[in-house]
Design brief:
The structure holds 2 protein chains of 2 kinds.
Chain A lengths: L6 E10 L2 E11 L4 E5 L6 H8 L7 E6 L2 E2 L5 H6 L2 E3 L12 H8 L8 H6 L2 H19 L19 H13 L5 E5 L7 H16 L4 E5 L3 H7 L2 E6 L2 E6 L1 H5 L2 H7 L4 H5 L1
Parallel strand pairs in A: 3-8, 3-9, 6-7, 7-8
Antiparallel strand pairs in A: 1-2, 1-4, 4-5, 9-10
Helix pairs in contact in A: 3-6
Chain B lengths: L3 E2 L4 H20 L2 H5 L3 E3 L3 E2 H18 L11 E2 L2 H27 L11 H7 L4 H22 L5 H19 L1 H10 L3 H8 L8 H18 L2 H11 L2 H53 L8 H15 L12 H20 L7 H20 L4 H4 L11 E3 L2 E3 L2 H23 L2 H11 L1 H6 L4 H27 L9 H14 L4 H17 L1 H4 L2 H15 L9 H8 L1 H12 L10
Parallel strand pairs in B: 1-4
Antiparallel strand pairs in B: 2-3, 5-6
The chains are: A alpha/beta, B mainly alpha.
Bound molecules: adenosine-5'-triphosphate and magnesium ion.
Adenosine-5'-triphosphate (ATP) binds next to strand 2 and helix 1 of chain A.
Chain lengths: 265, 582
């Protein structure tokens, strides 16, 4: 384990009006770790991702990525520093093709401007070719589901599961150090969920991404997590290995009635 | 399963029949019918006024009688006797409303409010036979036309499109007599063909109309079915073959462009020049609105900046400062001025979205016009007197004087800008714009620098419009502030929206049709904005993606949904797909 965590959150707070969505949260993700963030609905998990990616500003606290405080940076600058995410309610670019969606992920990793594009300079062509090559490679990570004739299909014709996969591919293409996945298996059938669980593990083992994962499906959490952090009402109520957390009294209490059944299964 | 006969919904029939009547009354009351009555399409009897009013029951009855689309798993519904009856009823209702209107307005003078509801209009609507007999004619005619509209559905599917298309072509030949007769003259066959087709300037002859119908019918019939095959062939072609197709297409297009002004003569070239200048602007606005999704309602500002910069730099009599550059020497300065204007408009609206952006840009458009008009800047831009004596453009010793000459410059520039649009669209910059258009928040989270992308769109859009503006100044020879009003912005926006946002072929079609057609159809010019408005409403309801959508591929693939479903089923059944290498 490296000396300095990849993501270090200190004393992070965010309120929406009177609602404390995140309260004095301390949190870290080490390099090469898979950390799961769980908690009942409305616990503030997605809000946490929104804060880390700069979509909303925190009221207080520090968000340090790789040694640099990123509070106040624009979302695109944060992506450039190596934090990419997916969305709980899949947000692709629906009228753009599968390939174009992934190419957008590489936007900050490429650099030609309008002049190069108009003149079709050799540098432009080379970069474009490489980007397409890389996008195809990224999509191949999901087997044969998003390749071939799929490349040129608009994202809105994809099945739900494929949209989720494409969103992950788009995030992967930005070559992030830290990948934030917001409920990647939501809405998938058990077979698809099992498959994606393996892929999440592979994202770390083979692709080398550090991952922070929001997930309601406890089987997924149990299978992939090195560490689990439990949020409730914007505060951390437990942290530890999956087994420690699953048997924690406060966690069971927080989940009672809502997710208890799922957590036990 | 045996096909059932279609039973049109009675309520819908009544509602649409009455709606048709109100539409016809509306068209009459605004003076359209009276205005169009003077225009003969086919001599002696078919005049545009009656065609317009007859189209109303025809179209409404067609809609009333349309059977529901054939869907899988549902027994198909065939048009039957009730189809015709419904059409006839709808037509009768339409005619009844018009009759009621005629009767009422004969008794009550409403000219104080509706000044177009004049005795001549009433005579027109009653076919000069007096109210009593006229109303009978109206009702009988409406019923028959309604039945005719419904009868379209009874034509066997294979012939339906060709039959209707051929009629449309006859109307087009009648309407665009000026253009078509000139094309035949340009092709040096005018002396033989035109007297056969046309009767002086009174529209088609009867045998001319029949000939056009038959020819159009046969061509449409032979092309029917070919379209699918052609599209498939194109879709299946290898990139190299497709490239060849493209090159051939390009060569043909260039050839046609090269001879167009010679064939069309001066007047029609003038019309195309105007359309071409709007095309240049529409290409620019397409980048701003179509690609980047930034609704700019003050786009005329950039057109004005280009025109004024060009005029100041080239006119020997521009006030205060007149370097009297050539057009070519002025271009870099025009582009720089436009880029600055783009930054000026773009910067304050960087963090705005949607409606706010539209309103602020609307303001900028007006500000630009008022500035050029203002006394403060009169020493530079001449105020209301504008700038005159903008010279012609010349290349070496060749001077471009006539509208035929200008055609080449405008469309050469259009080709360059089309290429630029295409190149940008298929690049990192274009993709960033489109992502921003689809979802600005997500685009930013995925690394797109929104500030840079917006400014780039504004600057490039401004440069394209300014080039159009400069050409406009040279073409007209003098510029005045009032040429740069909001109507220009709206017209350009119409071209982009109706053609298809983000679609280059769509924008080309939009500019030619929306700007060129009203010039050719003088009768329509009074109703231009009414028709624009109606067209916009129609497009937004029926075809919001435009005439030529930018993602035709997407549409094609929609038809492939069956294939996709099969694929999904396979997936659900648990096929064993190869995993990526471990
Ligand atoms: N932009 C916002 N404005 C106001 N309130 C918000 C906003 N975003 C989130 N909230 C509120 O903050 C709380 C936390 O929401 P959040 O989406 O982070 O929950 P979550 O843990 O992701 O829940 P779920 O499991 O349902 O996705 C909720 O009560 C939510 O209504
Ligand atoms: Mg959430």
């Amino acid at each position: 384990m490296s000396a300095q965590p990849l993501l270090q959150i200190r004393n992070l707070s965010k309120a929406f009006g009177g609602l404390m969505a995140i309260q004095e949260l301390d949190f870290h993700v080490n390099k090469d770790e898979i950390v799961s963030l769980i908690g009942p609905n409305g616990a503030g998990k997605t809000t946490f991702f929104n804060l880390v990616t700069g979509m909303i500003p925190p009221d207080a606290g520090q968000i340090v990525v790789d040694g640099h405080d990123i509070v106040g940076l624009r979302p695109n600058q944060i992506l450039e520093r190596g934090v990419a995410r997916t969305f709980q309610n899949v947000r692709l670019f629906p009228n753009m093709t599968v390939l174009e969606n992934v190419l957008i992920g590489q936007h900050t990793r490429t650099g030609t401007g309008p002049v190069g594009a108009i003149l079709r300079t050799p540098a432009f062509r080379r970069q474009e070719e490489q980007a397409v090559e890389k996008a195809k490679e990224t999509l191949a990570f999901f087997g044969s589901r998003l390749v071939g004739y799929r490349f040129d299909q608009p994202a809105n014709v994809l099945s739900y599961a494929n949209r989720r996969r494409l969103e992950i591919a788009r995030a992967m293409a930005s070559e992030p150090k830290l990948l934030l996945l917001d409920e990647p298996t939501a809405g998938m059938n058990p077979r698809e969920t099992a498959e994606l669980t393996e892929l999440v593990a592979k994202l770390r083992d083979e692709q080398g991404f550090t991952i922070c994962l929001i997930e309601h499906d406890m089987r997924v959490v149990g299978r992939v997590s090195d560490r689990v952090v439990v949020l409730d009402y914007g505060t951390k109520i437990a942290e530890g290995s999956y087994h420690e957390v699953a048997n924690d009294e406060r966690v069971v209490e927080a989940y009672l009635g809502t997710k208890a059944g799922k957590a036990a299964s | 399963m045996a096909a059932r006969f279609h039973r049109p919904d009675p309520r819908r029939t009544v509602v649409l029949g009455i709606a048709g009547g109100l539409t016809a009354v509306f068209l009459s009351a605004i003076g359209m019918v009276e205005e169009f009555i003077k225009r003969s399409l086919v001599d002696p009897e078919v005049v545009l006024g009656y065609v317009t009013i007859a189209l109303v029951p025809f179209v409404f009855a067609y809609v009333v009688a349309r059977p529901p689309p054939v869907r899988e798993g549902i027994a198909p519904v065939r048009p039957g006797p009730l189809t015709l009856a419904a059409g006839a009823v709808a037509g009768l209702l339409t005619a009844s409303v018009v009759s009621l209107f005629v009767v009422i307005t004969t008794e009550v003078n409403v000219r104080g409010v509706l000044q177009n509801v004049s005795p001549p209009l009433l005579e027109t609507l009653t076919f000069h036979r007096g109210v009593g007999q006229g109303v009978v004619w109206l009702l009988v005619g409406g019923t028959l036309i309604g039945a005719g509209g419904a009868a379209v559905h009874l034509i066997p599917a294979r012939y339906r499109r060709p039959v209707v298309l051929a009629v449309v072509w006859v109307l087009i030949f009648g309407l665009l007599q000026v253009l078509i007769a000139q094309i035949f003259r340009g092709l040096k066959v005018g002396d033989t063909v035109n007297p056969f087709l046309y009767k002086g300037s009174r529209g088609l002859t009867i045998h001319g109309a029949i000939t056009v119908w038959i020819a159009a019918f046969l061509i449409a019939l032979s092309l029917e079915g070919q379209r699918e095959a052609m599209r498939r062939r194109l879709a299946e072609a290898t990139p190299a073959v497709r490239r060849n197709y493209m090159l051939v297409g390009l060569a043909v297009a260039l050839l046609i462009l090269a001879v167009t002004p010679q064939i069309l003569g001066n007047f029609l070239s003038e019309v195309l020049d105007l359309a071409g200048i709007f095309l240049l602007m529409a290409l620019g606005l397409n980048i701003v609105v179509g690609y980047a999704g930034l609704l700019d309602l003050g786009y005329v500002a950039f057109f004005a900046v280009g025109a004024y910069t060009g005029a100041v730099l080239t006119s020997p009599s521009s006030p205060e400062w007149n370097p009297a550059f050539t057009f070519w020497a002025a271009i870099p300065f025009i582009m720089v001025a436009a880029a600055l204007a783009g930054i000026i408009v773009g910067t304050p609206v960087l963090r705005m979205r949607g409606d706010y952006l539209a309103i602020v840009t609307l303001g900028f458009g007006e500000i630009a016009r008022i500035l050029f008009l203002s006394d403060a800047l009169k020493p530079y831009f001449g105020g209301a007197q504008g700038i005159i004596r903008v010279p012609n453009i010349s290349i070496g010793p060749v001077e471009f004087v006539t509208s035929q000459d200008f055609f080449y410059i405008i469309y050469a520039l259009a080709i360059v800008l089309i290429y630029v649009s295409w190149a940008l669209q298929h690049s990192r910059v274009g993709r960033a714009w489109m992502a921003m258009r689809e979802d600005e928040t997500v685009a930013e989270v995925m690394g797109v620098n929104i500030v840079a992308a917006k400014l780039q769109a504004f600057i490039i859009g401004a440069i394209l419009a300014s080039l159009g503006g400069a050409l406009f100044a040279h073409k007209i020879g003098s510029i005045f502030p009032h040429s740069f009003n909001i109507v220009v912005s709206i017209t350009v926006l119409m071209c982009v929206i109706v053609g298809g946002m983000g679609s280059i072929p769509g924008v080309i079609l939009g500019a030619i049709v929306l700007v060129g057609a009203p010039e050719l159809l003088r009768e329509f010019s009074e109703f231009k904005f009414l028709l624009y408005g109606a067209l916009l409403i129609f497009m937004m309801q029926m075809k919001p993606e435009g005439l030529i959508p930018s993602r035709q591929r997407a549409q094609e693939l929609h038809q492939d949904e069956a294939a996709q479903d099969a694929w999904l089923r396979r997936e659900a059944l648990g096929d064993t797909e190869p995993e990526p290498a471990k």
